[in-house]
Write a structure and sequence with these properties.
Elements lengths: L7 H9 L5 H22 L6 E3 L7 E3 L1 H16 L1 H53 L9 H21 L7 H24 L1
Antiparallel strand pairs: 1-2
């Protein structure tokens, strides 16, 4: 139960307030991790910061893709050790996969594949918000929080639905209250604009 920057309840409630429609949640579960992964593929074409000497001839390049995956992984682990460890593992698997794909595609084809995947995935999310959620995406209110929390949010959603996972007792009840309060406040603001 962190505070401030690592307050999981606060982050989850913020993100959850924008994702209450089941279809929109499913669309995010489908599209969020591919956005993260393809961002890493693009970041593989940034300058190498350090090269890890491994058995290969060139070693393993550590660049902005590695830094990006590491920041996300650490943030998730600091917010919740169990689910965060799984999210960190997914971040590093995405990073390893992005190394491989970027190497195979090269920049001239890689950026085109990333652009197509990003456009498709973002379109799916905006359709989810426009047609099903009927609320603007969270990124319009807090860009950094929305980008940082999205992969972890959909993982926590999946863990809750599939395994009834709760970071600590009372987490979902507390978050549900905060989400409901935020949505009621949003509805009231929306009604004020109409009149």
């Amino acid at each position: 139960m962190g505070k401030g920057l690592f307050d999981l309840e606060k982050h989850f409630a913020f993100y959850g307030a924008y994702h209450s429609n089941p279809v929109n949640v499913i669309l995010h579960m489908i599209f969020v991790w591919p956005i993260f992964y393809t961002s890493l593929v693009l970041f593989q074409f940034t300058p190498i910061l350090v090269r890890l000497p491994l058995s290969g001839e060139d070693g393993l390049p550590l660049n902005f893709a590695f830094a990006f995956a590491t920041i996300y992984a650490l943030f998730y682990v600091l917010m919740d050790r169990k689910a965060g460890a799984l999210a960190a593992l997914l971040c590093f698997l995405c990073w390893l996969g992005s190394v491989s794909l970027a190497t195979r595609l090269g920049f001239s084809l890689g950026w085109k594949v990333v652009l197509a995947a990003q456009l498709f995935c973002w379109a799916g999310q905006f359709i989810g918000h426009g047609m099903f959620e009927k609320r603007a995406p969270a990124l319009l209110d807090n860009l950094s929080q929305a980008f940082l929390m999205a992969p972890f949010f959909v993982l926590l959603e999946a863990l809750e639905k599939l395994f009834n996972y709760e970071p600590y007792p009372g987490f979902h009840a507390n978050v549900s209250k905060k989400i409901e309060a935020d949505r009621m406040e949003w509805q009231a603001r929306k009604q004020k604009k109409v009149y």
